[in-house]
Amino acid sequence: MPRWTPDARVDGLGELLRDAGFTAETAARSLHAATPADLLTNSALYAATSPDDLTGTLPGILAHLFICNAALPSATYEKSVPASLREAFEALHLLVRERDSVRSLVSLSPFDSMYFLSDPLFRTANGAITMTTRRDLVMPPHASSLLLLENVAAMKGRLLDIGCGSGFLALSLADRYDSVIGVDINPRAVAYSRANAVLNGRAATFTLGDLATDLRVHPPADHVIFNSPTGPTHRDDDREPGWMAAPTALTTLVERLPSVLAGGGSAQILLIAELPREGPALPLPSGYAATHIRAFPESQLAVPENSVTSGRIDPGCLLVRDSADARRLMAHLHANAIRAVHPVLLTLSN
Ligand SMILES: C[S@@+](CC[C@H](N)C(=O)[O-])C[C@H]1O[C@@H](n2cnc3c(N)ncnc32)[C@H](O)[C@@H]1O
Prior knowledge:
The chain is of the alpha/beta class. It is built from 13 helices and 14 strands. It has a seven-stranded mixed sheet with strand order 10-9-8-11-12-14-13, sandwiched between helices. It has a three-stranded antiparallel sheet with strand order 1-3-2. It is globular. The chain starts with 12 loop residues before the first helix and ends with a strand. The structure holds S-adenosylmethionine.
């Protein structure tokens, strides 16, 4: 399958999608998701169990193409998608033709009156889902993105979003700040973030950078956020770029903070942390005016304590791929005396 090259000529696309009635609400309704946030969190589930025929409405067709990442018969495409939208999709090379159907090369996540282009995380065909496992995949906004967005501190001034991915956090928060910088280790993420800034008419600067080696911003930021690429440590394949265990992610951020965080500023890191039965879960740094920790044991990104005790992982848990992976995770938690896995939001204030 070819890949999409993020393109800055997406400026008129948002208007066309809105005119087509494709919004966070209509996408959620088409796929029978309770809310737009629920759809983003569980997009693979809704794509797998989507109504057989989404093609009765234009928002349904766009959800079928860009959220379920499913092939659409060419005849339906020609008949039901307005010429102006087809011309835009084709000029931007967002679709490929496959014999008698068309298929998207990108995922398009509508959220809160914005749109986020990213690589597709999965494809659907005949009700089956195939997950993409490319190392430099730029993920659509997902459960951890929403968790951080919903719990981010109300700050002003200069924002630095480390590991910006599709640009979801930087762009969703851009209106609150004087200036916004996003950095990512993955060049495709930087390119997607720039395209999404244009698509949504938001001012933000995105650059390539590695938190672990060379990250520096001038002037330093008042608010640093990092939705870290962390998770349980039971498997070492199929991980996202820059994947780190939670303690390493925290230590790496703390070492870099003097180069990026202004006096009086705050840094917030979201980690998926394994909590040992004994001893500290995270290497908490000293030297900050305040350190605040909040855990989210009810999240779909958690394996709560009662689950570890009972040996059963909730089917809605987003930390495992399938039942074999769930068994492997449970064996790992028991063997390593881990009492729970929780998303943890840590705030460090200068
Ligand atoms: C969990 S994703 C978060 C993406 C986006 N901020 C969001 O919330 O949807 C983590 C991101 O961190 C980036 N990343 C991993 N290691 C990094 C590093 N050392 N320096 C900068 N970015 C890194 C990855 O490429 C990925 O885009």
